[in-house]
Amino acid sequence: MAQIIDGKAVSVAVKEEVAAEAAKLKEENGLKVGLAVVIVGNDSASRVYVNNKKKACETVGFQSYEYALDENTTQEQLLDLVNVLNRDDRVNGILVQLPLPAHIDEKAVINAISPDKDVDAFHPVNVGKIMIGEYAFLPCTPAGVMRLIESTGVDITGKQCVVVGRSNIVGKPQSMLLLQKNGTVTICHSKTKNLKEICLTADILVVAIGKAKFITGDMIKEGAVVIDVGMDRDENGKLCGDVDFESAEKKAGYITPVPGGVGPMTIAMLMKNTLTAAKQQNGIG
Q: Judging by DSSP bridges, how do beta strands 160-164 and 34-40 pair with one another?
C-alpha cells in the first residue's frame, strides 16, 4: 500500500518558509512584498482561485492588490492595466487569472507582463530560461510537483520518469525540471502508442491530462512515485484526479491524493515566486 504524499502539509511548510523570509525582508529592508491579481468576468472557479490567492498572501504577510474587471473589458483596457502594474514599484508579481473571456487574446496579455514580474512563469522569456536551466521562476504546479517528489526522499537521478500530458503549463515544463534533476524522461500524450507499457516503466509517474481516473493500477510499476495533477469529477460528481486512486494506491510506493495533493502546492509556490521576484527587483540575494 502506497504512502500518501500530503500536499497540505508540504504546502504549509513552504508558506512558513516564505512568511519567515517576507518578515525578514520587511524588518531589514522595509520591503513589503506585493502581488497583483487581475480577474476579468464572473467565472466562479476563477473567483475561488483568486480568493485563495488573496488568503495565501495574508498568511505569508504579502500585500495583495485585486483588480476585478467587468467581462466586457476590452483587450486594450486590460493591456493598459498590465502596463500600469509593470511600472508600479509596490507590485512585485502580476498574475492575470486564466481563462480570459473569448474576445481577449491570452497570449498577448501574457506577453505584456514584465518577465521580472511574471510569477506564473508563462512569459516566453521565462519559458526559454527554464529550457536552459537558468530560471528565476518556475511554473507553480510543476515546481510544486518537484517539491512533493523531494518530500518522499526519492532521488530523481537516473530514474525513469514518465510525464503524461504535454501542456505548456504543466507537461512540458515538468519534463524539463525532471530532466534537470537527471531523470530519464518520456513524455506521453494523446497520440502515444503503447501508453500502458510506457507507464509501467516509470519509477516516477506524473499525470496531467484532465481525464478522470484515466490511469489505473495495472498501468503503474510496483513501488513507483505517482503524482496526480488532475482535478476532475467522477461519474457521481465527486472530485477526483487523472489517476484511479483506489487501484493505483495498491501498486505505488508513494501517491498524491485528490484533493489534498498537488492543488495546495500551486498557490504555495506562487507565494515563493513572488518573494523571489521582490528580492530580485530590489537587488537582494
A: unpaired
